[in-house]
Write a structure and sequence with these properties.
Blueprint lengths: L10 H14 L11 H20 L4 H8 L2 H8 L6 H30 L5 E5 L1 H5 L10 H4 L3 E6 H10 L5 H6 L2 H9 L6 E4 L4 E6 L11 H15 L4 E4 L2 H9 L4 E3 L17
Parallel strand pairs: 1-2, 1-5, 2-4, 5-6
Antiparallel strand pairs: 3-4
Helix pairs in contact: 1-5, 2-3, 2-5
């Protein structure tokens, strides 16, 4: 399933509302001898209440997916009969399990996000391709202490695509992907790259089906914002002016990368082929 949070909401909010709704639905379970018309009225009222409470915390499209199931539609449109009562009870039980699973997912995300030391810093594609090798930079210089570098999966996909670019410069720089893959291949968590520079690095894998974003920047910003709901010190590092402005407008904490960290060859003419 995967319910994405609204801006300003936190993982604590998500856990609280999911657990509340998962347990409170038991009061709507219907006695098999209950009048079908009354049972359906009670069920519809439950669905309306749940939708309202979920939409106050989560994005509406995903809330509709949770509520508007095939069985829900059957319950709302079927002819009255005793078959309605077991359908309603089965739907209530399944929605309770789904909401409990969502609470568990958010709790696991909370534990995972806080499981490693360092101040979390999400790197975008620009930070990897247009700046010096990330594992050789002193990130604690801009973070004020040990940094926990976090790379969204979409960033790796973009860097991987650059390995086939017409630009020799980008093809060469995209080889950093191989370095990431090699160092993380046998690691189940953040891997320490450089003790002297004081940072760890990890790939941020989605814990729910990924939303399809035609715009990569939007997906990367969304990853940073979701992590920010767990750890309010999460920051996003980019040298892209447009992305920096968009991220700030959406509420992300953005770090400006030092100019001296840029590749020395950025002013050179790029030869294609």
């Amino acid at each position: 399933m995967g319910l994405p949070l609204l801006p300003g909401k936190t993982v604590r909010d998500a856990i609280a509302v999911c657990e509340e709704l998962a347990t409170s639905n038991s009061s709507y379970f219907t006695n098999p001898n209950h009048m079908p018309s009354h049972a359906r009225d009670d069920y519809v009222q439950w669905a309306i209440n749940v939708e309202d409470k979920l939409r106050a915390t989560f994005r509406a499209p995903e809330v509709y997916v949770l509520i508007d199931t095939p069985r829900h539609r059957d319950i709302c449109t079927a002819h009255l009969g005793q078959h309605l009562v077991p359908m309603i009870n089965a739907e209530l039980a399944q929605r309770g399990r789904d909401l409990k699973a969502e609470a568990d997912r958010f709790r696991e995300m909370q534990t995972r996000t806080k499981s490693a030391p360092g101040k979390p810093l999400v790197l975008d594609t620009n930070a990897l391709l247009e700046y010096q090798p990330f594992d050789q930079l002193t990130w604690k210089q801009i973070m004020g202490g040990p940094a926990r570098l976090m790379i969204p999966l979409r960033v790796l996909e973009e860097v991987n695509a650059k390995k086939y670019s017409d630009s020799k410069r980008l093809r060469r720089r995209a080889r950093i992907l191989l370095r990431i893959e090699e160092r993380l291949r046998d690691s189940s968590g953040p891997a320490t790259f450089d003790e002297s520079n004081g940072h760890t690095i990890e790939v941020v894998l989605p814990d729910r089906p990924r939303r399809h974003y035609p715009d990569a920047d939007e997906e990367i910003i969304d990853v940073a914002l979701e992590l920010q709901t767990v750890h309010d010190t999460v920051k996003l590092a980019t040298g892209d002016t447009g992305m920096r402005l968009r991220a700030k407008a959406l509420g992300a904490n953005v770090v400006d990368l030092p100019v001296e960290w840029r590749h020395k060859s950025d002013d050179e003419v790029d030869d294609a082929g």
